[in-house]
Amino acid sequence: MAKARPAIESLEFHPLTPDRWGDFERLFGPHGAYGGCWCMFWRETRSEFARNAGEPNRRRMRRLVGRGKIPGILAYAAGEPAGWCSVAPREDYPSLERSRVLKPLDDTPVWSIVCFYIARAYRGRGLAVDLIRAAIEYVREQGGKVVEGYPTVVRAGRLPPVSSYLGVPSAFLQAGFEEVARPSESRRIYRYHIRARRRHTP
Predict the structure, then answer these.
(1) Greater confidence, 1 or 77?
(2) Confidence at residue 162, expressed as pLDDT on a 0 to 100 scale
(3) What CATH fold (topology level) applies to the domain 11-193?
(4) Contact call for residues 115 and 163 (beta carbons, < 8 A)
(5) Where are the alpha helices (DSSP H) in the chain?
(6) For residue 155, what pLDDT band results from cuts at 50, 70 and 90?
(7) Gap between the Cα atoms of 5 and 51, Å rounded
(8) Contact 139/194 with Cβ under 8 angstroms?
(9) What is the pTM of this model?
(10) CA nearest 71: which of 92, 57, 101, 51?
(11) Cα distances (Å, whole numbers) of residue 143 to 131, 138, 195
């Protein structure tokens, strides 16, 4: 039986702003996470993404951040970039809006979590759950009410990292999400409804 990996200590979470771009680059490495993606897959049409893999995607993401757009949340472990979660209003993701599988369920305005990237040293240690919770708090601060995730169903064994970039159902369940739709055999839609915090009366 495999031993449980230790929990990650000294975690911090911060939105990706221009001053943190270097940390984002360091986390994603020379290949932009996977195949030159640079977390642009859902932010472009499929034809645009095919043309822009690699350095063009890196430049496009940097311009996005430079304009003051927050594309997601960085996780830090002991001050070092350790993980990433892309979260933004659904309409910020053109390919998601065009998806035949992940169609809008209703007219509810939602924020969408569409990507995770975890540094190798921190995989399998629950960081995705922590990132989801940090994303919820960020959406709350922005006035959002509903957060959606689109995890991949694990059929047998472990998914390779490149196949689990949308997350897995167990991570969303641990973060308090509920399954609301099964649009395909391998894809689920989960939602989290943000409720106002109760005010403590003296």
Answers:
(1) 77
(2) 60
(3) Aminopeptidase (3.40.630)
(4) no
(5) 21-28, 46-52, 55-66, 94-98, 127-141, 169-174
(6) confident
(7) 39
(8) yes
(9) 0.90
(10) 92
(11) 18, 9, 11
